[in-house]
């Protein structure tokens, strides 16, 4: 009887772990090769994972909601259907019996609980180990676990830098002790934010043998209060975002339904709160007369439909935005410390609302696509996002984002910037409205026009109001005079 291991796949070069969202097959179910078998969620993307072989699902080793390392065996397929009845009985005791032998299993239950219970002792121990290793074992190479320990997502590194923390002092609950966003938030919430300032640890640990006298000079440094004012500022900042990301416990009343956040919702919450805290959000709004675009769309919609493409207002807007981002590079930029990064590529992210959250797939090199190419790409990305068939590359390297609340009838929205970008455009409902129309003879009258509002949210650290207004004015001109030959 042959069994095939089903492993947690690596959905991108920087992905080290994944969460088992849902098993689409149960123990004893038959599966076909390449048939969707389970759903996973990572920092980058949600996806359905196909079966590596045909047979019967014999064992489920990782339950729904568990986060394990890439390469972990999450289940096994029995390639002989005749053995399908036996495995279910063994599958029950298997996790308990095999847990010690399977690396990922102990990593999650045991370390997660212990470091969190005793964060204070863990911090100094890890700092001493790291300092000692650097000083004594100069020729020793880092182990795989140490590399994973130090490795973290850009968001985690940004949070650590902003709060002046020592990454080595934070107990990690990820793979091989890898520090996650939640670990940083828990560490700050527990009061550890002042215990691991980046500058002090090296000084305190390195002179461990000789600093006995050092504590004496320390009190004699009354000038420290001068530096203290700069220190309280970053220390006082964290509480606000933490309360937003980790809401206080609220009592559920009779008849209420309590639903835990899924991974996508948690990531979205953390990302949005971080964006509000990092960027100076300002909004500018402009009204667009879409009557000309509506006429173009009506004339060419059937021709696009024959090619299997739905011609929407969004396609025209994306095309116009792509053209104008090249003329206004500051809108297509990013902030890096005290530097502005002007992006060469124009990659426009389109927010897609899903039943389980929000995701922003990206149209790469949008300025090089025709209207047909943009319409086809928008349609393809939306369909694959809803079918959980996006790959990590589909949601990476965005330089500007567009969200379309108007599709639900919203008059206008004021969106949150998608970091590390500096601007995002919200499209309001496009509908017929009464408007003042100037006749050829110069007289004014009331007419019916197709109109909609656009709102640009931008980071006022590098985008001035004049920059945003010029971009919106050019965008309106492009849409209201859109060349028919481009359709």
Task: Give a nutshell description of this structure.
This protein is α+β, with helices and mostly antiparallel strands.
Describe the protein in words.
There is one protein chain. By secondary structure, the chain is an alpha+beta fold. Helix content is 34%, strand content 21%. The chain has 17 helices and 19 strands. The strands form 5 sheets. Strands 9, 12, 15, 16, 17, 18 and 19 form a 7-stranded mixed β-sheet that branches. Strands 1-8-6-3 form a 4-stranded antiparallel β-sheet. A 4-stranded antiparallel β-sheet has the order 5-4-2-7. Helix 15 packs across helix 17. About 23% of the residues have low confidence.
Index terms:
single chain, 487 residues, alpha+beta, OB fold (Dihydrolipoamide Acetyltransferase, E2P), Chloramphenicol Acetyltransferase, 3 domains, seven-stranded mixed sheet, four-stranded antiparallel sheet, 17 helices, 19 strands, 34% helix, globular
Q: Tell me the count of domains.
A: 3
The CATH architecture category of the largest domain equals: 2-Layer Sandwich
CATH topology of the largest domain: Chloramphenicol Acetyltransferase
Number of helices: 17
What's the CATH H-level homologous superfamily of the largest domain?
Chloramphenicol acetyltransferase-like domain
Number of strands: 19
Low-confidence stretches: 81-140, 193-245
Termini Cα gap? 60 Å
How would you sum up the major sheet? 7 strands, mixed
User: How large is the share of residues in beta strands?
Assistant: 15-25%
- Kindly name the structural category: alpha+beta
Tell me the overall shape: globular
Rounded to the nearest angstrom, the radius of gyration is 27 Å
């Amino acid at each position: 009887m042959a069994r095939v291991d089903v492993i947690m796949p690596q959905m991108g070069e920087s992905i080290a772990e994944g969460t088992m969202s849902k098993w689409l097959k149960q123990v004893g179910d038959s599966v076909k090769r390449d048939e969707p078998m389970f759903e996973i969620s990572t920092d980058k993307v949600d996806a359905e994972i196909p079966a590596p072989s045909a047979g019967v699902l014999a064992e489920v080793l990782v339950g729904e909601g568990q986060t394990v390392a890439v390469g972990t065996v999450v289940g096994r397929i029995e390639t002989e259907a005749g053995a399908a009845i036996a495995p279910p009985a063994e599958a029950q005791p298997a996790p308990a019996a095999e847990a010690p032998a399977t690396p990922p299993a102990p990593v999650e239950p045991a370390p997660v609980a212990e470091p969190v219970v005793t964060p204070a002792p863990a911090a100094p121990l890890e700092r001493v180990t790291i300092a000692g290793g650097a000083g004594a074992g100069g020729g020793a190479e880092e182990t795989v676990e140490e590399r994973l320990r130090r490795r973290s997502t850009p968001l985690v590194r940004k949070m650590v830098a902003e709060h002046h923390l020592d990454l080595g002092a934070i107990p990690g609950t990820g793979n091989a002790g890898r520090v996650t966003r939640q670990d940083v938030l828990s560490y700050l919430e527990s009061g550890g934010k002042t215990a691991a300032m980046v500058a002090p640890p090296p000084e305190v640990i390195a002179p461990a043998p000789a600093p006995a006298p050092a504590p004496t000079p320390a009190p004699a440094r009354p000038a420290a209060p001068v530096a203290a004012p700069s220190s309280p500022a970053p220390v006082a900042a964290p509480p606000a975002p933490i309360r937003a990301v980790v809401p206080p416990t609220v009592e559920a009343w009779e008849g209420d339904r309590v639903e835990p956040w899924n991974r996508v919702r948690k990531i979205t919450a953390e990302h949005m709160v971080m964006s509000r805290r990092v960027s100076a959000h300002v909004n500018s709004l402009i009204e667009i007369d879409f009557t000309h675009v509506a006429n173009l769309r009506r004339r060419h919609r059937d021709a696009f439909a024959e090619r299997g493409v739905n011609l929407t207002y969004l396609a025209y807007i994306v095309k116009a935005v792509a053209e104008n981002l090249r003329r206004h590079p500051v809108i297509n930029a990013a902030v890096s410390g005290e530097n502005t990064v002007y992006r060469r590529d124009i990659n426009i992210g389109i927010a897609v609302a899903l039943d389980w959250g929000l995701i922003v797939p990206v149209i790469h090199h949008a300025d090089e696509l025709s209207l047909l190419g943009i319409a086809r790409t928008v349609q393809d990305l939306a369909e694959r996002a809803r079918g959980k068939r996006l790959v990590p590359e589909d949601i990476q390297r965005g330089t500007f984002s567009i969200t379309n609340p108007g599709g639900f009838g919203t008059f206008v929205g004021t969106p949150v910037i998608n970091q590390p970008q500096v601007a995002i455009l919200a499209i309001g409902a496009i509908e017929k409205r009464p408007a003042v129309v100037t006749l050829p003879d110069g007289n004014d009258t009331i007419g019916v026009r197709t109109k909609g509002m656009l709102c640009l949210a931008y980071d006022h650290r590098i985008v001035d109001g004049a920059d945003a207004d010029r971009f919106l004015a050019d965008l309106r001109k492009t849409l209201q005079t859109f060349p028919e030959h481009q359709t």
